[in-house]
C-alpha cells in the first residue's frame, strides 16, 4: 500500500469530521442533555451495537463506569454486547434478532436511555432493542449513518437521531467515536462545569 492511499484515509476522515461537526452538534447536545437528566434522576444507559459498533458500545459504557478525562463517581451504563452466555442462549433459543431486546426487557425501566449504534440504520437486533425500549417508556439516542435507514423512521420526537452524513462504514464509525467522546465530555461538564484543564 502506498503512502497516498494511507493519506487519503486520513484526509477523508478529517474532512468528514469537519463537515459533520456543524450538522451533528445540535443533536449531540440534545443527547448530552437527555443523558445527564436521566443519570441525575437515578436512571441508567443501556448500549448496543454489532461488530465495530459493539466495540463502541463497550467503549462508551467503560467511559461512564470508569472515567473519561477526570475523576468522578461511576455512572450507570451497561453494554448489552458483553455477556456471552446471554447472547448465545438468546440467539440459540430464540433468534439473533432478540439478543439485545431481551436484555432491554430485563434491565430497562421507564426513564432509562438506550444508546443504539448501527452504521446502516438497518440492524435488525438494534431495531428490536429500540422497539423494546420504546415499549418500556425509555428514550433512545441512535447513532447511524447512510441516511439513517429504518431506525431513523422508528424514532419518536422525544428521541435523538445522530446520523453521520456518509455511506462508508469506516468513516461513519470514526465519527461515532468522536461523538462518544463529545457525549462523555458533555456529561462531565454538566456534572462539574468548566474544563478538565482548569
TrEMBL record:
<feature type="binding site">
    <location>
        <position position="63"/>
    </location>
    <ligand>
        <name>substrate</name>
    </ligand>
</feature>
<feature type="binding site">
    <location>
        <begin position="50"/>
        <end position="52"/>
    </location>
    <ligand>
        <name>substrate</name>
    </ligand>
</feature>
<feature type="binding site">
    <location>
        <position position="173"/>
    </location>
    <ligand>
        <name>Zn(2+)</name>
    </ligand>
</feature>
<feature type="binding site">
    <location>
        <begin position="118"/>
        <end position="120"/>
    </location>
    <ligand>
        <name>substrate</name>
    </ligand>
</feature>
<feature type="binding site">
    <location>
        <position position="173"/>
    </location>
    <ligand>
        <name>substrate</name>
    </ligand>
</feature>
<keyword id="KW-0413">Isomerase</keyword>
<keyword id="KW-0119">Carbohydrate metabolism</keyword>
<dbReference type="Pfam" id="PF13580">
    <property type="entry name" value="SIS_2"/>
</dbReference>
<comment type="similarity">
    <text>Belongs to the SIS family. GmhA subfamily.</text>
</comment>
<comment type="function">
    <text>Catalyzes the isomerization of sedoheptulose 7-phosphate in D-glycero-D-manno-heptose 7-phosphate.</text>
</comment>
<dbReference type="GO" id="GO:2001061">
    <property type="term" value="P:D-glycero-D-manno-heptose 7-phosphate biosynthetic process"/>
</dbReference>
<feature type="binding site">
    <location>
        <begin position="92"/>
        <end position="93"/>
    </location>
    <ligand>
        <name>substrate</name>
    </ligand>
</feature>
<comment type="subunit">
    <text>Homotetramer.</text>
</comment>
<feature type="domain" description="SIS">
    <location>
        <begin position="35"/>
        <end position="197"/>
    </location>
</feature>
<dbReference type="GO" id="GO:0008968">
    <property type="term" value="F:D-sedoheptulose 7-phosphate isomerase activity"/>
</dbReference>
<dbReference type="InterPro" id="IPR001347">
    <property type="entry name" value="SIS_dom"/>
</dbReference>
<dbReference type="InterPro" id="IPR046348">
    <property type="entry name" value="SIS_dom_sf"/>
</dbReference>
<protein>
    <recommendedName>
        <fullName>Phosphoheptose isomerase</fullName>
        <ecNumber>5.3.1.28</ecNumber>
    </recommendedName>
</protein>
<dbReference type="GO" id="GO:0005975">
    <property type="term" value="P:carbohydrate metabolic process"/>
</dbReference>
<dbReference type="GO" id="GO:0097367">
    <property type="term" value="F:carbohydrate derivative binding"/>
</dbReference>
<feature type="binding site">
    <location>
        <position position="181"/>
    </location>
    <ligand>
        <name>Zn(2+)</name>
    </ligand>
</feature>
<keyword id="KW-0963">Cytoplasm</keyword>
<dbReference type="InterPro" id="IPR050099">
    <property type="entry name" value="SIS_GmhA/DiaA_subfam"/>
</dbReference>
<keyword id="KW-0862">Zinc</keyword>
<keyword id="KW-0479">Metal-binding</keyword>
<dbReference type="InterPro" id="IPR004515">
    <property type="entry name" value="Phosphoheptose_Isoase"/>
</dbReference>
<dbReference type="GO" id="GO:0005737">
    <property type="term" value="C:cytoplasm"/>
</dbReference>
<feature type="binding site">
    <location>
        <position position="63"/>
    </location>
    <ligand>
        <name>Zn(2+)</name>
    </ligand>
</feature>
<comment type="pathway">
    <text>Carbohydrate biosynthesis; D-glycero-D-manno-heptose 7-phosphate biosynthesis; D-glycero-alpha-D-manno-heptose 7-phosphate and D-glycero-beta-D-manno-heptose 7-phosphate from sedoheptulose 7-phosphate: step 1/1.</text>
</comment>
<feature type="binding site">
    <location>
        <position position="59"/>
    </location>
    <ligand>
        <name>Zn(2+)</name>
    </ligand>
</feature>
<dbReference type="InterPro" id="IPR035461">
    <property type="entry name" value="GmhA/DiaA"/>
</dbReference>
<feature type="binding site">
    <location>
        <position position="123"/>
    </location>
    <ligand>
        <name>substrate</name>
    </ligand>
</feature>
<dbReference type="GO" id="GO:0008270">
    <property type="term" value="F:zinc ion binding"/>
</dbReference>
